[in-house]
Amino acid sequence: MLSALKKLLPNKVKIFIKSVLKKKKSVSFLPSENLSECLCCGSNSLSETPVLWDSLISEWELSAAEAKYINHQQGFACQRCKARLRGMTLAYAIMRMNSYQGLFKDFVKTPWMRKKKILEINRADWLTQYFNQVPGHLLCTFPEVDIQNLPYAEATFDIVVHSDTLEHVPDPLQAMRECQRVLRRKGFCAFTVPVVIDRLTRLRAGLPPSFHGTENQTSEDYLVHTEFGADVWKLAFQAGFAEVRVFSLEYPAGLAFVFIK
Ligand SMILES: [Zn+2]
After folding, report:
1. How far does the centroid of ligand 1 lie from the alpha carbon of residue 88, in Å?
2. Fewer beta carbons under 10 A from the terminal one: N or C of the chain?
3. Its pTM surpasses 0.70
């Protein structure tokens, strides 16, 4: 029936229909806009739940405005695929590395992505379900694998990904050195970390212990060693990378970093 209909349509009409369908598929976001659909799966069922609690806000010494954007980064999420703003931002950064405009679920099926060797260190938000579509994807998790001492040969991967891991690691510079080591030349490490943009990075050593996760969670995995600030980019050059890119899906809540080897 459909093929009979197709035969009846003049070519001009077919081209018009194709262009309309194509337009609908291509999604592009301007960083100044509020997201109205999930950048990963396309669902427009998005909602926000505040995740910070009072004692964490005071340990972190966040102003009301800072607490608001950190809450947005961690608590704004897709109801369908569960990606949070930070996950969407990470996906956005990786797509932009290939000038792709669209959804992450489609991007992982592109030839460019399918031939990449990808190391995902600790689940990067809810993106594992998408990275799993890439044949060369490898997920490693703590404590079996420690980002500060990766059990892989140098120049093994094209892309290394992590999300909100670096602040929990005793030595983030060593962690980024390891990411740099296992990357091939021109490969890149894409990651997120909570950044308070109007201050400099501070170490929590000597301060009362502070934990991310949920209130009353005091497992070592959630202990915060470093509170990152505007100088987070320095890690790239200290770790031997050649270039830094910062991507903003929503400023300042949705920032992702890409360090290129
Ligand atoms: Zn989604």
Report:
1. 8
2. N
3. yes
Per-residue model confidence as pLDDT tens digits over 161-220: 999 999 999 999 999 999 999 999 999 999 999 999 999 999 887 787 888 877 777 777
CA gap 257, 248 in Å, rounded:
9
Integer CA distances (angstroms), 141 to 122, 158, 165, 247, in order: 4, 19, 11, 25
CA of 81 to the centre of ligand 1 (A): 4
Bridge partners for 140 per DSSP: 121
Q: Which residues of 2-24 are buried (b: 16+ CB within 10 A; e: fewer)?
A: eeeeeeeeeeeeeeeeeeeeeee
What residue ranges do the domains of the chain occupy? 46-260
**Dist. CA 128 → ligand 1 center (Å):** 12
From the CA of 40, how far away is ligand 1's center (Å)?
5
Q: Cα of 82 to ligand 1 centre, how many Å?
A: 6
Q: Separation of 64 CA from ligand 1 center, angstroms? A: 28
For residue 180, give the H/E element and its range. Answer: helix 172-182
Between the alpha carbon of residue 84 and those of residues 47, 146, 147, 157, 213, the distances in Å are: 10, 24, 22, 25, 14
pLDDT tens figures, 59-106:
888 999 999 989 888 899 999 999 999 999 999 999 999 999 999 999
State the fold for domain 46-260.
Answer: Rossmann fold (3.40.50)
Residue indicated by tokens 């990470």: 90
